[in-house]
Amino acid sequence: MRRGAIRYNRSVAREPMRYENILEVVGRTPLVKLHRVAANCAAEVYAKCDYLNPGGSVKDRIAITMVDEAERQGWLKPGGTIIEGTSGNTGMGLALVAAIRGYRAVFTMADKQSKEKVDALKALGAEVMVCPTAVPPEDPRSYHSVADRLVREIPKAYHPNQYENPANPEAHYRSTGPELWEDSEGRITHFVAGMGTGGTITGVGRYLKEKNPKVRIIGADPVGSILYDYFHNKTIPKAETYKVEGIGEDFLPGALDFSIIDDVRQVSDKESFQWTRRLARLEGIFAGGSAGTAIAAAVQVMPELRPKDFMVVLIPDTGMRYLSKVYSDEWMRDNRYLESPVAWTAEEILAASTGSAATRRELVKAGLSDSVAAALALMQAHDFSQLPVFDGARPAGAIYEDAILNLALAGQNLSNVTVQEVMAAPFPVVQRSATVEQITSLITRECPAVFVELGRDLYEVLTKYDLLHAVARMAGSRHG
User: Fold this and answer.
1) Parallel, antiparallel, or unpaired: how do β-strands 366-367 and 386-391 relate?
2) What pLDDT is recorded for position 476?
3) Domain residue limits, the chain
4) CATH architecture for residues 62-158
5) What per-residue confidence (pLDDT) applies to 12?
6) Residues 68, 174 contacting (CB under 8 angstroms)
7) CB 38 within 8 A of CB 305
8) Which among 8, 221, 232, 380 could bridge 227 via Cys, Cβ 3.0 to 4.6 Å?
9) Is the pLDDT assigned to residue 87 strictly greater than 90?
10) Active-site option among 59, 117, 209, 365
11) pLDDT single digits (tens) 261-319
């Protein structure tokens, strides 16, 4: 059977897939391994594909749980109206519930949400009021305030208020968390998800921590949201506008429990949208912009993973709601998010830096037992500010001119100090097939280079200068 073909096993008995209504289809979404996105990662990385829920998003789960609880408590009765402020996905889930159980549905949305979301809600019979984005939550024009006003004005109205409703994280504690634990066979070590209301990451995190306190829960937050700053600095900065939908906040939602979270990574709109498009083209996973935010955060974490680690990234919603935005070249170009169509690899960058794919530069390196004085002489001879350190044929560390300068200023005799005594961690190692995006995500002010593994204990060093040089040569070859 060819690779990727559908496998049928008629001898295996299974329950017929028949359901009373569409709400029973929610949940049990698959884990799908990410091969190309995580090509240079030592660990296994999987996507939790909640965009495959019938309403197209993870929010189907909380819609059912919140309405179930409201019916039990008597807050929502026959003939009632569900009113919610939403970025679209929770509205879709609630609209499904309203359609099945006979409720009226009225939703308020910020005007930055896609037209596809508004049209989808209306297709399910919901009423939609679009409100301005660039106003604070307490402004009477905001979609939060308008929802509050409608609840007061419409008889028999129920406001789920996903931002404060404990049924939000409870839905994920009872469903998403157990699914992740069971489908990973208890191997999950890292969970990455975007943060909006905080229900998903709180409920999943709480369940996984109960199963294994060592599981790391990692949030992804867009630049402009306040959640990243609050987690790291316990400060609430002034929120700025950003274009990715459905995650990030300009206030602290009650459904979000920061004590469950181990780390929060910040991602720009450009990174979010570019990784969203790559996810579709590299893995066939057609998702919304917030999935790109989570993938970009996961890519930041990947170099820290070990071979036995098992990372899961939540894919919250479908790309069908963003055809006019993330998947529109014109919209991406107008917002200066469209990336170059050239997909450079480490091997191609090396070739552009040396001028020939067959030319390999001699690697200038120091040994563990070399003196710092000898390493400094090498750095000066080649005009380098850092030098890789090898233990035989394998990378062992790196030595930087700043560390040498500090030794000299402290009066140390550089000839009497070995490189091993002052070296820092080695540069990250990537394969020759690594993309330029993966390489640039690893090169930082603290780590100015990466190793490209060529096989047979051969390595090349790629620096930011090499990347710039390669860009110049490739641009020249296209326009020459």
Assistant:
1) parallel
2) 53
3) 22-56+166-334, 62-158, 346-479
4) 3-Layer(aba) Sandwich (3.40)
5) 55
6) no
7) no
8) 221
9) no
10) 59
11) 999 999 999 999 999 999 999 999 999 999 999 999 999 999 999 999 999 999 999 99
- Give the whole-angstrom CA distance, residue 233 versus residue 437: 29
Residue that the structure tokens 């990715």 belong to: 244
The arrangement of secondary structure in 22-56+166-334, i.e. its CATH architecture, is: 3-Layer(aba) Sandwich (3.40)
Tokens of 462: 């790629």
Alpha helices in 124-253 (DSSP H): 143-153, 167-171, 177-183, 199-211, 227-233
CA–CA gap between residue 171 and residue 125 (Å, rounded)? 25
At 185-210, the pLDDT tens digits run 999 999 999 999 999 999 999 999 99
Q: Which two tokens stand for residue 1?
A: 């059977």
- Taking the CB of residue 60, how many other CB atoms lie within 10 A of it? 28
Axis crossing angle, helix 59-73 with helix 89-101, rounded to the nearest 10: 50
Q: Residue holding tokens 């920061």?
A: 258
Angle of helix 115-123 relative to helix 89-101, nearest 10 degrees, comes to: 10
pLDDT at 1: 39
Indicate the CATH number for domain 346-479.
3.10.580.10
pLDDT digits (tens, 9 = 90+) for 153-179: 999 999 999 999 999 999 999 999 999
Placement of tokens 């169509």 in the chain = 341
d(CA 121, CA 118): 5
- Number of Cα atoms under 13 Å in the Cβ half of residue 409: 6
Tokens coding 386: 């850092």
Active site residue 243: no
